[in-house]
Amino acid sequence: MPHICDTSCMRFGFLLIAAALSLNAQTLTIHMILHAIGEERYQIAPSDGGLTLNTTFEYSDRGNQRSTTATLRMKSDYTPLSLEVKGRTNPANTVNLQGSSATVQEDGASRTFSSPERYFVIFGSSPFALQAMMMRYWGAHGKPTELPMLRANPLADPIRIEPAGHDSITVNGHAVALDRYTVANLMFGREILWMNQKGDLAAAMTFAGGLPMEAVRSEYEPALPELYRSGVAQEMADLAALGRQVPAQRTGAYAIAGATLVDATGAAPVADSVVIVRDGRIAAAGHRASVAIPRGMPVVDAKGQTLLPGLWEMHTHFSGVEFGPALLAAGITTARDCGGEFDYLVAERDALEKHNALGPRLLLAGLVDAGGLKAFGHVTAETPEEGRAVVNRYHAAGFRQIKLYTFLTPDVVKAIAAEAHRLGMTVTGHVPQALNAFEGVEAGMDQINHLNYVSNMMRAPAGGRGPIDVNSETAAKAIQFFKDHRTVVDPTAGWGEMAGHSKDVDVASFEPGITKAPFVLDAKFRGMGGQTSAEQMRTRTAQTLAAIGALHKAGVAVVPGSDTGLVGFGLLRELELYVQAGMTPLEAIQSATIVSARAMNLDRDSGTVEAGKRADLILVDGNPLANIGDLRKVSRVVVNGRLYDSASLWRSVGFHP
Predict the structure, then answer these.
(1) Which among 91, 208, 255, 277 counts the fewest CB atoms within 10 Å?
(2) Where are the beta strands (DSSP E) in 384-429?
(3) 217 plus 333 within the same structural domain
């Protein structure tokens, strides 16, 4: 049934039009991980009987300048007539409408088609001024349940805008009433928007470009903490709704019978196994002949499948509740967050750990950088005293690690590491630019995120820019250093492959999960890459794999993580690369189970399928010991004793199983 706009809806639309005609200019302050990094300035002006929006979106991402401009021409009721967005894409992305015909040019693709009755034009979550106009259009056109976006790809999902609640903030001593909305299908996961009573965008929380971002109307900036707390509460409400959508198929006590058990201890596979799950723990595991199933206990038939420990994702940025179902669907039952927003991460972790919310166990590494515009995130330390205070704050909130970042000074690094170790925490992260990897480890780093910090020390001379010869004396000394210091490395090789892939190489050829991803993720990752040729991509990958293989062969602990790669599937691609690097499939599986558990000092509790350990398990169609790619065929996943259907989890967040 079409939506019929009532009298109140029409009044709302007229108010929005009046507001736009009287509005000259607005400024939004842009934040990444709650750290102010830039602004967006936009103007709306009458033109040719309609309206024209011009906006400039500029920010500094850890010192890298980003700039996007957009011009949107509209009718007086906000119906788009044309859009041009200029930024990192070349040429610009454009939409032009002539009558009922629309032509879209987007990332090198073009499509001409008949436009629907209602529609809007936008190429992602930013610039945010376009979202402000989207909300005005939606309000003036009956608030449709679905709002189609005109994109070059006809498979683009329509936007879903839902009223979510109301908030009141205080600005200059005056109360300002705001309406809160969630917006789905603009990017992966629902973002949150606030609109004031004049129809202006007050603020937004989004997961744009792989990391959490906030935009807030500049005069509302002092109220950002209030809005953020409301946004976190909204995320938790969305998480609870996902849990109701995908209930566990089994809880309590039950048996999984008939699978081939690969317990990750290194023992031979056990055919026709039985694993007894009771109250979130593994009560027994072994061959059917040695493990009796209690009379009346429910049995999950797993004949023909492989049963393994749940996988560990050791480098993610868990910035939205939709990550939980996607990670679980891929067989990931423990995830380490490597840097995000303090309050959200604590709320998400506690919901997962204490209230059985939908997602893997979440381990937190508290991000800290030096201050200034280039800083990454909102937690900073300029002095040793500030560094120790940061560690104590994270420790009190139950974070397991500290994650160092680029601009920390050596004295602060040493103070942070010493305090973390005193409190029983470990230290991971980027090697700060004032140090090399050797110096970082000597200053107290237990682990290193990203291979490049380690592999650079394998080049001749150490820290140079030449190719890596893993058989060289320089490489041997570097590898021995990391082995002697028991340094744990998460290479994020798959993220490097994805972010820097050649435009000449189809993403699906190395990451087939892209064909199952929601449109917004498909568009995002296919749009990555640069001028690298296919041959250069192969050469770079070969160097990466050689370094990983040499580290593993020498006994350096390598753990897998996907960073901001394709959620869920990125971890599976990482393991495929490890096999290409020389690990056996079992060794790659162990890197994502028992080796990761040891790295986090949780191997007594998790990481293998043994009696007494957490019931974190996966059932796979196929034999990943013969073909590591079979890990992409997870059919069911058990997290802390709760069994879920993988396909249902995928569908709950827009993937196509």
Answers:
(1) 91
(2) 401-404, 426-429
(3) no
Final residue of a domain: which of 245, 266, 294? 245
DSSP 216-245: EEGGGGGGHHHHHHHHHHHHHHHHHHHHHH
Residues 327 and 205 grouped into a single domain: no
Read off the tokens for 204. Answer: 């937004």
Instruction: Please check whether residue 592 lies inside any domain of the structure.
Output: yes
Domain boundary among 245, 272, 289: 245
Task: Note whether 536 and 611 are same-domain residues.
Answer: yes
Q: DSSP character for 532?
A: -
**Residue 323 sits in a domain of what CATH number?**
3.20.20.140
The identity of residue 256, as a single letter, is: I
CA angle 357, 358, 360 (to 5 degrees): 100
β-strand partners of 305 = 621
**Does residue 20 sit in the same domain as residue 93?**
yes
Q: Report the domain count for the chain.
A: 2
Residue 88: CB atoms within 10 Å: 8
CA distances from 489 to 394, 420, 441, 591, 603 (A): 22, 19, 11, 11, 17
Q: What is the gyration radius of the CA atoms in the chain, in angstroms?
A: 26
- Judge whether 411 lies within some domain: yes
Secondary structure of 323-369 in the HEC alphabet? HHHHHHHCCEEEEEECCCCHHHHHHHHHHHHHCCCCCCEEEEEEEEE
**Alpha-carbon span 379 to 206, nearest angstrom:** 19
Helix (H, G, I), strand (E, B) or coil at 627: coil
Same domain flag for 321 and 186: no
Residue 460: give the domain boundaries: 305-652
| Partners of 306 in beta bridges | 260, 620
Q: pTM score, two decimals?
A: 0.94
Q: Residue 494: in which H helix or E strand, if any?
A: helix 493-499
Going by the DSSP 8-state scheme, the letter that residue 246 receives in this structure is S
Beta strands 201-208; 93-98: pairing state:
unpaired
- 80 and 214 housed in the same domain: yes
Give the ranges where 507-533 is alpha helix by DSSP (H). 507-510, 519-526
Q: How far is CA 231 from CA 65, 193, 378, 395, 474, in A?
A: 27, 9, 17, 24, 50
Q: In this structure, is residue 82 part of a structural domain?
A: yes
pLDDT of residue 319: 87
Read off the pLDDT band of 20 (50, 70, 90): very low
Token output for 282: 């593994």
d(CA 567, CA 315): 11
At 116-157, the pLDDT tens digits run 999 999 998 889 999 999 999 999 999 999 999 999 999 999
Q: Mark whether 369 and 483 lie in a shared domain.
A: yes
Cβ-proximal residues to 240 (8 Å cutoff; 6+ apart), any chain: 351, 357
Give the separation between CA 610 and CA 593, rounded to whole angstroms: 13
- Give the DSSP letter of residue 468: B
Residue 257 lies in a domain: no
Instruction: Dump pLDDT digits (tens) for 291-337.
Output: 999 999 999 999 999 999 999 999 999 989 999 999 999 999 999 99
pLDDT digits (tens, 9 = 90+) for 59-95: 999 988 999 999 999 999 999 999 999 987 668 999 9
Report the alpha-carbon distance of residue 301 to residue 286 in Å, rounded.
15
Do 318 and 236 lie in one domain? The reply is no
- Tokens coding 400: 């397991």
